[in-house]
Structures are given as structure tokens and as C-alpha cells.
Amino acid sequence: MNLYTERHGLRKPIARTSKISKEVYTLLLNICQKYYKNLTHIFKLQKHSSFVGQDYIEFNSSQFENRMAIKIPNIFRDEYGHLAAPKDNDEYDQYSLIDLIEYVAENIKDISEGWNNDRYKNYWYIHCLDTTSAFDDYRNEINEIFQESGLLFTLTHGKLIERIVENTPLSPAIETQVQQIAEYGTRELMKDAIALYKTPNPAAHQYSVEKIWDALERLKTYYTNLDKRDSATKVVNDMSNGKDDFIAIFDAEFRALTNLGNSFRIRHHETNKIDITDNRHYDYFFNRCLSLIALAIQYLK
């Protein structure tokens, strides 16, 4: 729902960011906590009502906390050791919260719950179902907070959080083309590069660039019946439709990207290589290399 100031253009555009503030952290954690009971099929606490002589189950919060201590050891906890939202000057690892969001998404299942007896209310029961309709509600709630807070993340249908990269040539159409690359090594390097590129943690973006440069080098040897030089020449000639002007353009771009890969700390890590210290530059390198590969793979035989 768009509020009045949004409908009438009276609100400043939301600043886009990859930083989860304490306030947004709290909102996201509250959504996770709301759906903890949907993990009861994993974390069951067996209970017995002696008054009516019936067994029932509850969500085992203690078992859940213990499991998270192993599964997501860096997630923020309060002084009592419970998962909590940071306050004031507390330091926190926002990517551990993303781990928690993904963990709930991956394991969420539907439940039915209620009082055993509407009149006497002896105990509150939870029945675990083998369906996952609750995931859609969970995903919508998480993504609503991402969108409203300007966070450049999205929880996908595949139950993974990916970063949203603005002004990128990467598209579903390109990802489909990558899946169709016949040569296994090139295809897998490209898939790895794209997956790392989408990862929220900036530390992965260096590896995404390394992988896509490896894919570029392997692409040059795509035609295994030819040596590397002739294979690379065929790739360029095919994507140029044999036209000299385009051959010159694409040959120069392949050479330029090869030189970048050799000069900067992308594929090689010797001390004489140029360090990339600004994460935004990784996006530039990735997208430049992707643009050339995305065109070339459309012409592969």
C-alpha cells in the first residue's frame, strides 16, 4: 500500500543500501520469530497434560537456541544467550541474520494450532503438516521490509537471499543462456561466478570476478579440436559475423580483458598486481566481462 506522501510525490526517494540498521534488524528478526513455530517439526518439545491425560507438542525453543549456536555461531545474542536484536552501541553481524532468515525459509512447514478445548483451554497444541504454504507469507513479509527500508536484498522463491544489483546487464535471459553452454567447464565457471555475484556478502564479489575471468579464459579454448589461438579466433569471428570492423572491436575487448586480468589482482595474486580496494569496482569488472561473454555464448556452436 502506498501512503499519502508516496502517492503524491511528497516523500524523498528511499536511499538504497546494503547495510541492515538496528531498526531493520529488529523488524526482520521479529518476522523470523513469528515463524519459529513453523519449525516445530524439527524442534519438538513433548508435553503431557495430566488433567486430561493427553500428550501434545510445543516448539522447543531451548533446542532451537542450542542448534543455532552451532549453525549460526556469530548471530547476535543478549546477555542471557538468547537470539535478540542489537541495541545502542552493540556490534552485530548482519550476514548472520541473513543466515537465520534463510534457515527459517529452508525449513518452514505449515502447522495447525489451537486450544484443545475452546471452553477449558487445557493446553495449546501444534500439529505439524507436510506442506509449505507458509513460506509464501514469510517471503512476502521479509521482502516487504527489504523493499520499504531500501535494502538491496531479496528472498527468492529458491529460499536464498540474493543482493539486488542496480544497472547490471545480468538478466534471467543471460542466466538461461549460461545454462545452455555445451562445454561443461565454461558453464560451471559461469554459474559459480553468477552465484557469487548475487551473494549479499561483499567478500564473495572478489571470487565472482575471479570465476568469470576464469570462464573468459576457458571460453577462448571452447573449440577443443583447435588450439587456443585458433579457437579464440573462431569465437571472435562467429560473434562478429565475419565482419572486419566487429572482429577488430571484439578482438580488442578480449585482449583488454585479458590484460586487466593479468594486471589487477583478479586471477593472480603476486605482490606486483594492482589491488582492488573498492567493492564497486568488482561490480564494474564483473559486468564488463559478463557483457562480452553474454554476447559470445549466443554464437557458440
Written account of the structure:
The chain is mostly helical and 301 residues long. It folds into two domains: 4-153, no CATH class; 165-299. It has helices at 4-7, 22-34, 61-71, 94-107, 134-149, 172-179, 184-198, 203-219, 228-239, 244-263, 279-296; strands spanning 44-49, 54-59, 111-115, 124-128, 153-155, 161-163. The strands form three sheets. Strands 1-2 form a two-stranded antiparallel ribbon. Strands 3-4 form a two-stranded antiparallel ribbon. Helix 2 runs antiparallel to helix 5 (134-149) and helix 9 (228-239) crosses helix 10. The two termini are 49 Å apart. The model has no long low-confidence stretch (mean pLDDT 95).
Outline the secondary-structure elements.
Blueprint: H1 4-7, H2 22-34, E1 44-49, E2 54-59, H3 61-71, H4 94-107, E3 111-115, E4 124-128, H5 134-149, E5 153-155, E6 161-163, H6 172-179, H7 184-198, H8 203-219, H9 228-239, H10 244-263, H11 279-296
Antiparallel strand pairs: 1-2, 3-4, 5-6
